[in-house]
Amino acid sequence: MGAPVDMNQARAMAERIRQSKETEKRIAEKMKKIKHKLMVLSGKGGVGKTTVAVNLATTLALRGFKVGLLDADIHGPNVPKMLGVQNAKLEVNENQMIVPVEPIPNLKVISIQMALPQDDLPVVWRGPLKHKAIQQLLDEVDWGELDYLIIDMPPGTGDESLSVAQLIPDMDGVLIVVTPQEVAILDATKAINFARQMNKKVVGIIENMSGEIFGTGGGKKVADKYNVPFLGSIPMDANIVKCGDSGTPFVLEYKDSEAAKAFNEVVDNLQKVLGES
User: How many Å apart are CA 155 and CA 192, to the nearest integer?
Assistant: First the structure.
């Protein structure tokens, strides 16, 4: 005979499942108020994924769209630093909902960094805790009505990406950031295959750091190979790094630069893919 069933444990498990399903229902209702939901992925680190996410969100906000930017990189949350709100802490409103920080008009931002008592504290969590944190950021944040929710994911295709893909079933799809080198292209194919395994559309490929140092054309090559849209190339510009360090979005500070024009072209192409123009 097997071990006797512990009814208290069984009831506790049933309650956790019930609560999880209720949370997922609430998240689904919140997501109905957001027109477009997009994950920003990269197959590897160091390709400037967060820089791209921040500047895409800023470009959309500057055009007058209501944009949310969720930093879902639990272990390396850099979005607050890049937007100059690294000292912001989570606050709740009268309805006990978390209030996003608004670094510029039309842009709402939330990051796990805002919940840490010290900026330099590491987040040492296993998968279930990370899933719970992302659940809370989607469920307990007062996003309101948005035109776009941009979700900056950590590099790779691990727990966080799985959680977001599962918690937002009606997501428009995935934006994949690559650099032109062959090794980055190889990692990008893994991100594409991840999206397809999760039944998420690859909305487009963005080539970052394009130019003399890393070459050019790799993003277009992988887009053509996998028959997904190529949204454009962002050229190398030292001021992009400078702005990330100083906490000012590059497209806000250097509006007339070639790289800022490239970000605008990427947004134009993204909107065409989404049927917005």
Answer: 13
- Domains of the chain in start order, with CATH, are 30-273 (3.40.50.300)
Cβ atoms within 10 Å, residue 17 = 10
Q: Are 117 and 5 in contact (CB under 8 A)?
A: no
pLDDT at position 124: 59
d(CA 53, CA 178): 13
What is the mean pLDDT of the segment spanning 121-137? Answer: 76
Question: 156: phi > 0 → left, psi -120 to 50 → alpha, else beta; which?
Answer: left
Contact of 134 with 163, CB cutoff 8 Å: yes
Extended beta strands in 90-236, E state? 91-92, 98-99, 101-104, 107-111, 146-152, 173-178, 202-210, 230-235
- The token pair at 8 is 């208290």
Cα 182 off chain centre by: 24
